[in-house]
């Protein structure tokens, strides 16, 4: 079972989803849990099925003291790069939390200070702490919802299934249809030999 949190009071866990995608936003979530959180099935979102993630989302939101989600879209990703966009999305999610956290734990090894609140970067933190794991589930499911909506407008790219990740079928669709306004033009959308 994952640890609930450090013993530092109101601690927010934050994580992002969609960093490696060719299209759509990078989405982050931030979650503050109480000390009596009971979510035994919670884990790193990548180790859960889609059905498990969506089943857990309302439970996370019900048990959380506070949670928030934020998107940074492809046009800004192209300007500030994906790392900065990922950190900005986490900052935007943290900004929405009420009450405000007194400590932040971040999945991964890169972050920028947020409002002088102390933070720790935890490598593979989504498999170690419940608040980070919960943030990973919320970020993943809300981003998946967004890409499923986009799929109705651009059905040829298979976004309902691939969620914008660089699958073979997604790259084939780019070859056939070209790119949309939702694609990240700063990314290598196709192998160089195709271009």
Characterization of the model:
The chain is of the alpha/beta class. It has a single domain, classed as Ribonuclease H-like superfamily/Ribonuclease H (Nucleotidyltransferase, domain 5). About 40% of the residues lie in helices and about 15% in strands. It is built from six helices and five strands. The chain has a five-stranded mixed beta sheet, sandwiched between helices. Helix 1 (about 50-65) packs across helix 4 (about 130-155) and helix 2 packs across helix 3. The longest helix has 24 residues, at about 130-155. It is globular, with a radius of gyration of 17 Å. The mean pLDDT is about 90.
Cross-sheet strand order for the largest sheet: 3-2-1-4-5
Order of helices and strands: EEHEHHEEHHH
CATH structural architecture: 2-Layer Sandwich
Indicate the proportion of strand residues.
15-25%
**Major beta-sheet overview:** 5 strands, mixed
Overall tally of domains: 1
The rounded distance between the terminal residues' Cα atoms is 47 Å
């Amino acid at each position: 079972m994952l640890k609930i949190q450090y013993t530092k009071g109101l601690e927010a866990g934050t994580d992002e989803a969609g960093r490696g995608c060719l299209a759509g936003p990078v989405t982050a979530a931030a979650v503050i849990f109480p000390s009596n959180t009971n979510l035994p099935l919670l884990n790193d979102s990548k180790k859960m099925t889609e059905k498990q993630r969506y089943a857990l989302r309302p439970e996370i939101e019900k048990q959380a003291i506070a949670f928030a989600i934020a998107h940074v879209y492809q046009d800004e990703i192209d300007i500030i790069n994906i790392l900065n966009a990922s950190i900005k999305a986490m900052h935007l999610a943290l900004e929405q939390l009420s009450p405000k956290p007194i400590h932040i734990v971040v999945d991964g090894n890169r972050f920028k200070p947020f409002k002088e609140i102390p933070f720790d970067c935890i490598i593979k933190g989504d498999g170690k702490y419940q608040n980070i794991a919960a943030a990973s589930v919320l970020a993943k499911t809300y981003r998946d919802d967004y890409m499923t909506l986009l799929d109705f407008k651009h059905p040829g790219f298979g976004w309902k299934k691939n969620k914008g990740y660089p699958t073979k079928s997604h790259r084939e669709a780019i070859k056939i249809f070209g790119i949309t306004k939702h694609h990240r033009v700063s990314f290598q959308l196709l192998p160089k030999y195709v271009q």
